[in-house]
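Sample pair:
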Amino acid sequence: MQNRPASPRSSGLWSCLPVIGRLLVAFWALVLAGGTTAALMLRHQTPPSTSVRTAQNKPAAPIAHPDTVATNHSTHQPVTVVQQTQGAPIPKSLPVTAPVPLTPEVKSPQMPPPIAQTPAVDLDSITASGKTALAIVLQGFGYSDAMTYDVLSRIPAPVAVGVSPYIGNLPDVLSRAHAAHREIFVTLPMQSAHPENVDEGPHALGNGNSEAEDRRELDWCLSRAQGATGLTDASEAGDSQPGGGYATTPGFHPIEDIIASHGLLYLSGSPQEDRHIRGMTATAWVNGDTDAATLDAKLATLLPEGPKPTHILLMVGPLTPVAIDRLATWLNGPAADRFILVPPSTLADNGATGEQASAQPKDIQTAPL
């Protein structure tokens, strides 16, 4: 036999690959192994979804998580509860009521803490004490948020406020005054004694109106005065009725009757208006649109030396930051020992009637206008 030379051993595929090919194969093997490991880990971390099945192997409706029910304010579908009986299952629908989350009360930064309401006062006891019963109305309240805050936080609660019916945010102004226990008097726009100089706005009574037109304007004002203590012919500009204003004419008497039928008081700006309705009459005015020195001088002479008036109803207007500051200082100064601050309604009477005149004490003096 002839000896044949041994054939060389064939090389493997790996050994035949160049170096760069081997690196690429190793890289993709690592990528595949890493992706498989990550998929297994994610599947392991995800909790398996388990369906609740009934006796007939039908999945029941999923039950909402409590946190989801509490935060979802939309309409919820009722959950169907399946009860197993001998026959077919009987579904019962139980409505799920989402609890309403409690919302913390948000206080307006413009609303100071309410001042305690003044208890009922006895004018006879004030008179017997030798002091003056002093009521004050601040005209022009509500035009400025800053001044509204100052009045409610610095001026004592018995001091009332006068408000124009033309204020756009009137309901908010009235609610803030109510929260601070203030009496409120809404101005009733009326033809002044000098209409050529004073514009009372589009809803003024008088000015040649018919009786029906006047009643329509009165109804408008009453609708704006919901919750007020009363109406007044005074405004932040002062009292324009003496000398021939609408409130001094016989045509105003039916208007007074309607105001009285609504249980409202009426605040007259001066004694010259011959009021025939239950209410009060201003006895003194202080112009608020002036400097501090003038305001201090006016307030200093409000209570004259010697015999003091038994009561004073002071009107201050227009309302200004200086007027608020000087009035607050005066009310807390030495003069406070000579008077007792009362709400204006404390001084209410029945108007210019024989019964009211005979019921008035004979020693009452009023401060000059």
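The two ends are 155 Å apart (CA to CA).
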